[in-house]
Structures are given as structure tokens and as C-alpha cells.
Recover the amino acids of this structure.
């Protein structure tokens, strides 16, 4: 069968699907139907380019100073090159111990955040509801 004959049914089926479901056709190119697609400005592209170049220059500089064994202000004899660090990171991420440490750290962060929220809201309520609470704040501040 020639290639032209094979592609016609697919195109016809696509056209039928779009005709049968106009909401699908309307949402092509949009994540949410009815909302405009966000536009990327030239300034945003410039910012992304500057950040990318800065990171690239930093990693390339790191590679060269470790490869040459640079020893002027800082001693790079004991600093591993970026490739070794990346390989060690990838190997470490694949262990269960890494994720256990991440979970413990996230638990500590969550507990600390909750305590800060409770203390902050409580202090704010006391300061807003009583003159004595507000005077304590103003005396300290």
C-alpha cells in the first residue's frame, strides 16, 4: 500500500475527533481551556540565559582549577572534580540511607515550621487583642 493511502485514514480520524469534541480542539496548546497561554518575555529569556551561563562558567571553572591543581588563594588539591561529585551524588541518591536522611530532615523542618507558625500566630493574637501584649512588643522593639 502506498504511504499516501496509509496516512489518509489517520488524518480523517483526527478531523472526526476534533469535530466530535470541540473542547479538545479548543484546548490544544493550552493547559487549561479558556485561559491564555503564558507568554515568555525577552527579559525572562535573558534572565534564564544569564543564570545558565553563570552556572556553566562556575562548573567549568571548578573543573579547570581541580584539573590543574590550582593552589593560589585556595588549595584545590583535595577538591574533587565536578564529574566525581556528580557520580558520587547519583550513587548516594540510589541508597535507602540517603532517603532516610532526607525524610528525617524534612520531618525536622516541618516540626520547626509548625512551631514557628503556632508561636507567631499566638504572639500576634496576644499583641493584637491586649494592650499589655502590644506594650511588651513596643518595649522590646
Amino acid at each position: 500500500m502506498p504511504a499516501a493511502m496509509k496516512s489518509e485514514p489517520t488524518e480523517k480520524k483526527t478531523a472526526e475527533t476534533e469535530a466530535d469534541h470541540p473542547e479538545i480542539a479548543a484546548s490544544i496548546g493550552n493547559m487549561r481551556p479558556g485561559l491564555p497561554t503564558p507568554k515568555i518575555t525577552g527579559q525572562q529569556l535573558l534572565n534564564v540565559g544569564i543564570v545558565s551561563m553563570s552556572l556553566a562558567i562556575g562548573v567549568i571553572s571548578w573543573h579547570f582549577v581541580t584539573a590543574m591543581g590550582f593552589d593560589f588563594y585556595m588549595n584545590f588539591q583535595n577538591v574533587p572534580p565536578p564529574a566525581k561529585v556528580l557520580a558520587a551524588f547519583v550513587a548516594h541518591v540510589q541508597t535507602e540511607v540517603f532517603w532516610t536522611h532526607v525524610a528525617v530532615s524534612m520531618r525536622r523542618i516541618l516540626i520547626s515550621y509548625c512551631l514557628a507558625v503556632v508561636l507567631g500566630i499566638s504572639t500576634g493574637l496576644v499583641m493584637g487583642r491586649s494592650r499589655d501584649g502590644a506594650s511588651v512588643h513596643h518595649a522590646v522593639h
User: Anything to note?
Assistant: The two ends are 85 Å apart (CA to CA). The chain has six helices and no strands. The CA atoms of residues 26 and 33 lie 7 Å apart.
